[in-house]
Amino acid sequence: MFIWKKVNKSVKFSIQVIDKSSNKYKVIKTIGCSDSPNEIEMLRNDARQWINKYQNNPEFDFHNFEDSIQRVVGTFSGHRLVGVVLTVGKSI
């Protein structure tokens, strides 16, 4: 799914969610219509949120990337470094 910005006959822009999984474009949902750049950006954000909710995709916070990595790495326990022979096996 992706977001499509379509020009209408009234010179306004429609923000639509499009699916192309069956090699054809199919309008899944029309989020809204506007001619203001600020409103268009808000409609795009609404479309992104709708896609994430519809596909059940969790969002990853890239603004606090290092904190997220530390939380993920902090959950690892009981790991230890092993040698190449243990990992790959003995060479002949």
Secondary structure blueprint with pairings:
Blueprint: E1 2-7, E2 13-19, E3 26-34, H1 37-55, H2 65-74, H3 84-88
Antiparallel strand pairs: 1-2, 2-3
In short:
The protein contains 3 helices and 3 strands; from the N terminus they run βββααα. The protein is of the alpha+beta class and 92 residues long. The protein has a domain at 2-57.
Can you walk me through this structure?
It is a single chain. The protein has 92 residues and is of the alpha+beta class. The chain has a domain at 2-57. It has three helices and three strands; from the N terminus they run βββααα. The protein has helices at residues 37-55, 65-74, 84-88, and strands at 2-7, 13-19, 26-34. A three-stranded antiparallel beta sheet has the order 1-2-3, with helices on one face. The longest helix is centred in the middle third of the chain and has 19 residues, at 37-55. It is elongated, with a radius of gyration of 23 Å. The mean pLDDT is 80.
Number of strands: 3
Radius of gyration: 23 Å
The residue ranges in which pLDDT falls below 50 over 5 or more consecutive positions are none
| SS-derived structural category | alpha+beta
End-to-end span in angstroms?
Answer: 50 Å
Arithmetic mean pLDDT: 80
Name the beta content range: 15-25%
Number of helical regions = 3
Q: List the secondary-structure elements in sequence, H or E.
A: EEEHHH
Write a concise keyword list for the protein shown above:
92 residues; alpha+beta; 3 helices
